Amino acid sequence: MGRAAPWIVLALALTFPLAMQAEHQTYYLSFASRIFIYALAATSLNLILGYGGMISFGHAAFVGTGAYVSSILLSEGVASAWIGWPAAVAASSLAALVIGAVSLRTRGVYFIMITLAFAQMVFFLVNSMKAYGGDEGLSLRERASLGLGVDLGSDFAFYYAALAALAAGLYGLHRLAHSRFGRVIQAIRENEERAEAIGFPVYRCKLVCFVIAGAAGGLAGALLASHGKYVNPNVLHWTQSGTLMMMVIMGGAGRLWGGVIGAAALLGLEDLIANHRVDWLAAIFPNYQQHASLGVGTVLLAIVLFAPQGIAGMLARKKHA
Amino acid sequence: MSALLQVENLETAYGASQVLFGLDLSIRAGEVATLLGRNGMGKTTTVRSIMGLTPARSGVIRFRGERIERERPDRIARCGIALVPEGRQIFPNLSVRENLVAFAENRSATRDPWTLAKVLAFFPGLAARMDNLGGRLSGGEQQMVAIGRALMTNPHLLILDEATEGLAPLVREEIWKCLATLKAAGQTILVIDKYVERLVAIADHHTVLSRGRVAWRGSSAELGADRSLWHRYLGV
Asked: Given an 8 Å threshold on Cβ–Cβ distance, is A193 in contact with B93?
């Protein structure tokens, strides 16, 4: 993206709710918030997957931990987002520290499997917590409260909160990627042994990166729980990790905007297929709207085949062409 | 003067396959030393053992008086040993600037450290390529980045493993000139290469390996004078 593009995107994002309110289209306000939250989660995964080369199949564990910790606090009467969200971030960071400390001692397919296994352990743990809904999930009476005269109960205010969190996440990733630590992480992705032989403690650097990603994933989880005023164990399921991974791959792994573009493309595509009937397509495939995943899968396949660096990579290539 | 690097009775194996058998090596500060030998004689393994990348099975490696044979590779590098590995191995998706700057440190606490400006003065050809990705450079440019990256850590000891391999003759000459300049500046260097004539001109002493053992050790004058050694151990 050019230098002006992020500011244009930000300006559009800032004015979007005003346009939606004028059109009385609150559904799209809530939908956009959902995209921002998933974009934050995908961006956090992009840090370890795209920049760090760590193919984690357990990122849902951190998103889910954040969602559950903030939800449990809310259900216990701790409504303040200033307590609930940092607690979610801290819990997800701790989970990432523990899972990363063990998983990062492995490589390749073993790393994928061990992160998946850890995430499933957390999934079954949450499933067994009957006091907090078990497999039926936990409904919340209200969203977290931000105070300062801001009512997060309104979709309008929540939209801006989610946007602020995503903007902070993207800015953080940008600064991190261009820092010395970020360069080392990318060097480790390219040649671990060489990075170590130059004098960088590979394991420690990867673990720090993993914990930062877990923390951001936890914040996304806390926002997700507040957004829907409901959380269930599916947020921790391995398919959720797969969805986040698809977002990163579709958007562009190792690219700043990869997670955002991927989340917007995937959720947008799902919504488009499920909620906007195309008559000529329905004439050929009568129940096609019930199979949105098939359409998403086809698009993902096309991206992997024709734009292996994702949509962001494809856009960057066109710009340089 | 005590040795900067002292390797004693080094034995290294890859699983059941032993490669080094009681190897000794000593380099003093300011010297340029070489490790010579045909392919598969254990030169790269020696370097990998010094760097901790292939840990020694037994033996002692002392660097600046401290034992390092059980240290992790990153700690060994931080002691002030920089390796320019075989095949260059620069980071292909980092720019030249990033390859150089990301790893800059003054590990030898020198008063006149290598900086980006100094590296670019040393390798002027890199200045125009600063924003290019490492993978887009020619072999010679990649080698310059690899050496520059090592120098940016301001090492006590610089190790070059086959630094001129696969390079065009003119580029190779550049590298030899650079090494001569570094030597004149007092940089301690251990070189592995197959251009014996050049090494005789630049190095102080040589260690020839044959099947993981030291087959011959001597000065440049001795190696230069005895061509039968070249033929016997180096296949020249």
From this structure: no
